[in-house]
From TrEMBL, chain A:
Swiss-Prot/TrEMBL cofactor(s): Mo-molybdopterin
SUPFAM superfamilies per the UniProt record, alphabetical: E set domains, Oxidoreductase molybdopterin-binding domain
Domain (Moybdenum cofactor oxidoreductase dimerisation) ranges: 290-399
Protein name: Sulfite dehydrogenase
UniProt organism field: Bradyrhizobium campsiandrae
Gene3D superfamilies noted in UniProt: 2.60.40.650, Oxidoreductase, molybdopterin-binding domain
Pfam name, any one: Mo-co_dimer
UniProt KW Oxidoreductase keyword: yes
Name of encoding gene: soxC
Entry's EC annotation: 1.8.2.1
One MF term in the entry's GO annotations: sulfite dehydrogenase activity
Keyword annotations: Metal-binding, Molybdenum, Oxidoreductase
Domain Oxidoreductase molybdopterin-binding: start-end pairs: 105-272
Amino acid sequence: MSERSGREVGWNRRKFLATATTGIVGSAVAGGASAETLADVPAREPGTDLGALSARSKYVRIGRIPEAGPGHRNVDPADAINSKAPLQKLVGGITPSDLHYERSHSGVPDLDPSKHRLLVHGMVRKQLVLSVEDLKAMPAVSRIAFLECTGNGWENWKKADGNLTVQNTHGLVSTNEWTGVPLKFILGLVARDPASTWMLAEGGDAAGVARSIPLTEEIVDEAIVAYGQNGEPIRPAHGFPIRLILPGMEGNLNIKWLRRLKFGDQPWMTRWETARYTQLLASGKARQFQLRMETNSVITQPSGTMQIRPGYNRISGLAWSGHGKIAKVEISTDGAKSWKEAQLNLPVLPKAQTRFQMDWTWDGKPTKIVSRSIDEQGNVQPDRDSFIAAMGTNALFHYNAQQTWSIDQAGRVQNVLS
Amino acid sequence: MSCRRMALLSGAMAFALISSAAASDFGRAASPDEIALWDIDVRPDGKGLPQGSGTVAQGKEVFAENCAACHGDNGVGGIKDRLAGGQGTLASAMPVKTVGSFWPYATTLFDYIHRAMPYQAPGSLSVDDTYAVAAYILSLNGILPSEGKLDNHSLPEVRMPNRDGFIPEPEFSRSKK
């Protein structure tokens, strides 16, 4: 990332000092342009010993931000309910495993894989107990897919806090490669009763998080009982030793620490699918089983609390859709009056985050920048006014309105509603 | 596009592999006794509810001992979710979602307390204490009288005030039978 492309704003310095996870510049790399000529570049010298694990450079400051709820950031880890990915410091399309966002409902359990079991029962011919080794012996598939917390974007429902970074506003989405057994294979093993139309998936965490999953053709075809994450065993925060992966669907459906799949013919109406992950509309009624994550995008560079200079700037960001591939991303640099098509970086995969970018020459006048994505099904990411008109401001979940960043005369980038 | 070809190829491979394996190759049969240990879910029609009962009066004591520290006395004013009140606020600018104002099924209350509460020791309440504390929370919301009780037959019969407050997503309602 070029040092021209953004730096932390002075008025935010106190906040920076209090936050280890905030970088000095818009990029993840600390330290400035201190080598004026090639003569100033330090001489080559032998490096450190090789080790079993490679660590990040000491010059890189990058981390997630745990929070306890909307607006409750940098809390004691004991009070945190989620931890947000540093979108403004990521490049490319894959999220490093340790920076993948996390939402855990009762902490991260310490599960010994040799004692972990998956019970598959209910409306099936053969009720089975499977070990992790059993699953690893089965035919496997890998898939690059985004996961997004249903609550991503929840900071901006009612108002926009100008001090927020894109990590604060959109950090509950990430993309990893997941490896495991196709659910379809397990359905074959247990001989699911064709009359079973719903599956309860339950986690081995203290809360026993449980969701009813409709067995649509799409879900049956795409669901994975995963044990691999970016080429290694799934990290504990993300469900070690096994979790469910349902590409494109609400994050919380992708049950972590999976220990039970039960087949039935109606939803169980667990607390999470009634009291929690439902969307309260202005009418007082709530949308239920709105399981698919919508067409979305956000500009990550430049984004909230960065500062740009007049002249050349590269705009970059991420787009994703639970409906399939991203077909197009458009960017407006004049507050949504006119739009230009951005370049999509390959590969563009279905239900995975896609990196987009566009060159821009800023004339130094205050303006607003905003992105909108369109997926292969033709779904267009809505502007905020239409989105709020449809959903009201109480829904709390499934926020996918276009994100606008305002830029003032000094080049300071701020979160605004539109 | 090469991506599409890859997706088709991996789909075809998965299908080919599926058709060649038999259940006897993986895992072992689950015994009814061990299934019963884990089979804790409860449906709105009451299926899955264990036999037992509890009164509002018992529940008040169970609540004071196990729940009030986080949820507040009478289920209001605690550091965690508010459990009582809020009826009539859902269409306002400041909706208050509680068991009484928002939850559509009383069976969910039993299921959730039984599986997940109290937070530090989920599953530590007896079945009777779970019915009792569910009864108490319903009484705090005016859904059960103070001399009320609940058991595995009466709990599914409780009609929650917001029972009709939900609009199921059409795309995923088709698989509901």
